[in-house]
């Protein structure tokens, strides 16, 4: 088929795609190492590590191995880590008491990491699920996760973490009022520089499955988290959650999971113009890593494409288990 004379398209969007340098020049977004936050798993014991079957390539390490585990990430320039504990069953109880222990895994890891890498940002998850024997993020009273009683424990958990060197408290529990309660508690102790990155819009998601395996919390969880985490059907409600957390003093907000919720990232960033982060969660990691292991996806390309999509949606950064390999690619480029 030939184009009739005079009917040539005067605008050809393909012109700006014709070679690599033009494509680079007109690119609207860029992913850099500074956009990456790497979640890591810490476990009890000595000089040991273990693998997470549902997250191929992800390891848990003992505290004494942490420095070696993260050194490469620090050298690559990854700005911050998010720390998660695999608490032994013997230390779990109905009230999540271990969360308040200044010698718990997270606090020990934080002290060591601050000493070894003073310029590395440390993000501490605040919620009780790694520490409760029922697997819920708060304490249960009459079959319901009790909001206000849980807040009292979360504030202590946040304090012991901040005192151990955690720079950013990241409440992931979805209790109402947690950001305000934690901010008040931190300020009362003079911890005015400790930031709060709230998991503001956190959905009750099937995509957390592999993470619960990593923490050993999957089998223990009784029921689901639908009475506190958000309904995936909702979007306006996410804006209310974010507004509330900001009013209570959140410095940064997060949307979680990531890829299926890019519309939420976009709306939050557009509406509030605050640092908005996205968490590419364990199930998203498992999907890409699993498909790549089968040869069904090109791992490197799928990872980079998924990450630039977060930037395009308006994210300031991404928590991703791919952080180190993405940083390696970006450094190579
Ligand atoms: C704890 C918490 C969860 C995740 C981060 N913090 C699990 C949950 O809420 O059940 C999930 C992270 C991931 O899946 O990678 N409240």
TrEMBL record:
The cross-references to Gene3D superfamilies, in alphabetical order and at most eight, read: Aldolase class I (3.20.20.70)
Q: Does the keyword tRNA-binding apply?
A: no
Pfam entry (one)? ALAD
Q: E.C. number, please?
A: 4.2.1.24
Query: Which CDD domains does this entry report, sorted A to Z?
Result: ALAD_PBGS_aspartate_rich
Which protein family is it in? Belongs to the ALAD family.
Name of this protein: Delta-aminolevulinic acid dehydratase
